[in-house]
Amino acid sequence: NSYDRVFSSSEKVPSPKTDLHTHYTGQLPARDVYDIALKIAHKTVVFNKEKLVKNGILPENHGLGEQTTLDVLDKIKGVREKIINSMEVNIQDQITFMDMDELYYARGPFFDSNNPNLIKNYVLKIAENYAKNGVDYCELSTCTWMFQGNDPKDNQNRHKAFSDAVKEAYKKYGVTVAFLLATPRVKRDDQSMMWFTRSFINEAHMPFVAGIDLLGHEKTSNKDYSYIFAAAANMCAKNGWKHFTIRSHAGESDEHKDNIK
Description:
Elements: E1 18-23, H1 24-27, H2 30-40, E2 46-48, H3 49-54, E3 67-69, H4 70-74, H5 79-86, H6 97-112, H7 116-132, E4 137-142, H8 152-173, E5 176-184, H9 190-202, E6 209-215, H10 226-239, E7 245-248
Parallel strand pairs: 1-4, 4-5, 5-6, 6-7
Antiparallel strand pairs: 2-3
């Protein structure tokens, strides 16, 4: 839990009331992610061969094929801890952006699942952890693929799962869980505009979406993607959204020191 802190007995630190910079797929402790999935959706969490090899698991040594479900992997000695370890970082470690990429890559199979019960239990566990730490509002950044796929019916099911989970989280724990749509902070081109526009058209109207989050490799100049701020503001005005978060990662970089002004 990102709010598990260790302080000396002499320190008096007030509990936070909000959390405005957390990523949905990175919020839960790795062991919670694994245990919830094993209990709720062990047949729908699938690892491909590449991910297994990256975790030091050689499929041919265990008679595994190109795709393996979590329930099968859990029966293999030592695999559980290897998978869990791949999804977490020691709180004392200093990590790079590439390390973060590896972390989210490792968590991918657990959050790619379309299982509504898995989505619900992840959101509820996040809300429970926040409630224990005095947080009553959070905005969790997540990629648009969390909400959409190629099948319209599947998309409706995902949207309903997130909507129901958010409502239950508030009712059960008094925590408002909102989501931000991740948008790449890149120079303007057709692909970046397509990504941004699709996020707004397909997901921004949903009640559990509070805004967008401009993220990605932070070596670009903030000026390079100022067009996104303008487009977001225009769309908010057009739709009458008066309370819409537009969050941007700071871009701490020696190459563009003016990013943090």
